[in-house]
């Protein structure tokens, strides 16, 4: 834990996220200029018995130099850049290590599907157990707006949760989270410790994004919220500084350390809250409140005001009030068609009798209370 700027790290598994600016700083293809220090950090971690997962952005930036005459690339050109750049990026990582690596490309569609999520989780664990370094990136070549995570900061948090990591290290182009934008204000002060992520934290993060990547400081705070909710220590550090990595290995905090929550979410609840996309919406009246003392039936058809969207049994749904308040995400035991039908019945006894024979609409073990979290 952190006491001031000194720490006592006892890590078993680390996820480190590296962005486009580190991979291709001049947009002239991949460069080892800043990657050598990161590779040395990974090697030293492994020598200490710490398993490492690398989340590496940069395929589009790495491939951009192969399309020199295009100033404003279309979506299809960016996908082609990603396809070409991915091989260059993996190639340079392989050249920096003398042990085996494995490439894993994924989309949000893979992560939000429970069966595929578990498959990814098992693959990562198997690779680590066999001494192989997983190198993970979003599959920009095939992903669509509907299926993409959008930035590798948030992807790295999802990967950290799937990997059962102890710590997530997010590399930035500045030293960490400042109380205001250090590029604009000379008196900006680095915040070394964040014990609770709240509106004030997001206000400090602002909304600026880097020139080479899609993620700014805000997405890094979003990632920290996801990771710390799962009990994962999270650091934002300056990835351009070899000193920062040496400080981490020496048990010092070189940037901003986000503390994990006291009571981490269970794995399934965390997945539903932060990774699984709601396929539909169940709207309840404004005066509805969940009775958490009831462990069998948390939502009755009488409480449902409206069913929105189309979903099937086993899909994740968002439960909201009429005023838009988000209450929970849950796995639905009913399809949208069937749920709409029984909720529309004028005779309440019909719905009661139906549910007594078919089971609850949602189960407590398959529900995540949102409590105003970013989802």
UniProtKB/TrEMBL annotation:
**Which biological process annotations from GO are given for this protein?**
L-proline biosynthetic process
| Top-level taxon | Bacteria
Can you say where in the cell this protein is located? Cytoplasm
* Positions bound to ATP: 17, 172-173, 214-220
Signal peptide coordinates: none
One matching Pfam family: AA_kinase
**Pathway membership:** Amino-acid biosynthesis; L-proline biosynthesis; L-glutamate 5-semialdehyde from L-glutamate: step 1/2
Q: Which reaction does it catalyse?
A: L-glutamate + ATP = L-glutamyl 5-phosphate + ADP
What GO MF annotations does this protein's record show? ATP binding; glutamate 5-kinase activity; RNA binding
Q: List, alphabetically, the PROSITE patterns matched.
A: GLUTAMATE_5_KINASE
UniProt keyword annotations, A-Z:
Amino-acid biosynthesis, ATP-binding, Cytoplasm, Kinase, Nucleotide-binding, Proline biosynthesis, Transferase
Role according to the record: Catalyzes the transfer of a phosphate group to glutamate to form L-glutamate 5-phosphate.
- Write out the similarity annotation: Belongs to the glutamate 5-kinase family.
Task: List the protein's name.
Answer: Glutamate 5-kinase
This chain's source organism reads Paraglaciecola hydrolytica
């Amino acid at each position: 834990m952190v006491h001031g700027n000194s720490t006592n790290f006892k890590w078993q598994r680390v996820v480190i996220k590296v962005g486009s600016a580190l991979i291709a700083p001049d947009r002239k293809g991949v460069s080892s200029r800043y990657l050598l220090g990161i590779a040395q950090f990974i090697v030293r971690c492994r020598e200490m018995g710490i398993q490492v997962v690398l989340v590496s952005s940069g395929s589009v930036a790495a491939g951009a130099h192969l399309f020199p005459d295009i100033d404003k690339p279309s979506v299809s050109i960016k996908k082609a850049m990603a396809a070409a750049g991915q091989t260059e990026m993996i190639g340079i990582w392989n050249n920096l290590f003398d042990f085996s690596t494995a490439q894993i490309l994924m989309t949000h569609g893979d992560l939000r599907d429970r069966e595929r999520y578990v498959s990814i989780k098992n693959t990562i664990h198997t690779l680590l157990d066999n001494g192989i370094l997983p190198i993970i990136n979003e599959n920009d070549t095939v992903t669509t707006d509907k299926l993409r995570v959008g930035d590798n900061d948030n992807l790295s948090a999802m990967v950290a949760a799937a990997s059962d990591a102890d710590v997530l290290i997010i590399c930035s182009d500045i030293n960490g989270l400042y109380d205001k934008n250090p590029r604009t204000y000379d008196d900006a002060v680095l915040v070394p410790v964040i014990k609770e992520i709240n509106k004030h934290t997001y206000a400090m993060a602002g909304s600026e994004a880097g020139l080479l990547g899609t993620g700014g400081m805000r997405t890094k705070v979003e990632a920290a919220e996801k990771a710390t909710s799962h009990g994962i220590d999270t650091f934002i550090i300056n990835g351009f500084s070899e000193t920062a990595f040496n400080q981490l290995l020496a048990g010092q905090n070189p940037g901003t350390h986000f503390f994990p929550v006291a009571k981490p979410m269970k794995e399934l609840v965390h997945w539903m809250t932060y990774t699984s996309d709601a396929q539909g919406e169940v709207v309840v009246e404004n005066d509805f409140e969940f009775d958490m003392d009831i462990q069998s039936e948390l939502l009755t058809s009488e409480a449902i005001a409206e069913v929105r969207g189309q979903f099937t049994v086993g899909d994740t749904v968002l439960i909201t009030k009429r005023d838009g308040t988000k209450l929970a995400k849950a796995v639905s035991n009913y399809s949208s068609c069937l749920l709409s039908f029984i909720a529309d019945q004028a005779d309440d006894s019909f719905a009661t009798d139906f549910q007594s024979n078919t089971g609850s609409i949602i189960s407590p073990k398959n529900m995540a209370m949102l409590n105003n979290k970013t989802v």
